[in-house]
Automatic annotation (TrEMBL):
It comes from the Bacteria. Residues 54-145 form the Cytochrome c domain. This is Cytochrome c domain-containing protein. InterPro entries: Cyt_c-like_dom (IPR009056), Cyt_c-like_dom_sf (IPR036909). It comes from Nitrospira japonica. One of its GO terms (molecular function) is electron transfer activity. The keyword RNA-binding does not apply.
Length: 149
């Protein structure tokens, strides 16, 4: 019995290790991250930066530079950046159109401002970027969804 439970403990440790080496998965990206008591307000927020080729280009520069977003989310937005590989849950894959359909800009903004508790996504306003820069980056993040599924 003692040996058996020790064996179970070791196997669990090995399993956890292999999971982190293989790369973790996203926590269900379709479930909201904003707490229930704040979600109506978050959804009602309007992005003050109009989406245009110019704001998307600005957002890309911020995503890949000052904002440091690419470190975790990856330059292609797939959630596979160099620092993202060790995170569990893994960073959001912005190429997932279903995710974008589920979220209003204000919900994305809320997470950039407050972080997603219990994950590697920490508050980045004002630590890395301003509110206006966050709205600009949101326009760029939306552009990772290429299809319309
Ligand atoms: C240290 C790693 C890291 C960095 C840097 C980072 N993120 Fe994240 N991000 C994450 C992780 C991990 C998640 C997934 C959190 C979850 O599943 O709740 C995430 C999720 C998100 C989400 C999804 C929120 C939602 O509603 O599900 C948005 C939007 C986001 N990040 C934007 C950004 C922006 C913009 C930047 C740069 C200014 C950035 N992130 C930088 C790790 C990071």
């Amino acid at each position: 019995m003692g040996t058996f439970s020790k064996f179970l403990g070791v196997s669990a440790a090995v399993l956890m290790l292999s999971a982190s080496v293989a790369g973790a998965e996203e926590k269900d990206p379709l479930k909201p991250r904003v707490p229930a008591d704040q979600i109506a307000e978050a959804k009602a927020m309007k992005n003050p930066v109009a989406s245009s080729p110019e704001s998307i280009a600005k957002g890309k520069a911020l995503f890949e530079g000052k904002g440091t977003c690419f470190n975790c989310h990856g330059k292609e937005g797939k959630g596979d950046g160099p620092a993202g590989a060790i995170l569990n849950p893994s960073p959001r894959n912005f190429t997932n159109c279903k995710f974008h359909k589920k979220r209003k800009d204000g919900e994305l903004f809320w997470v950039i401002k407050n972080g997603s508790p219990g994950t590697g996504m920490v508050s980045l306003i004002p630590a890395a970027i301003t509110e206006e820069e966050a709205w600009t980056i949101i326009n760029y993040e939306r552009s990772f969804c290429k299809g319309d599924e």
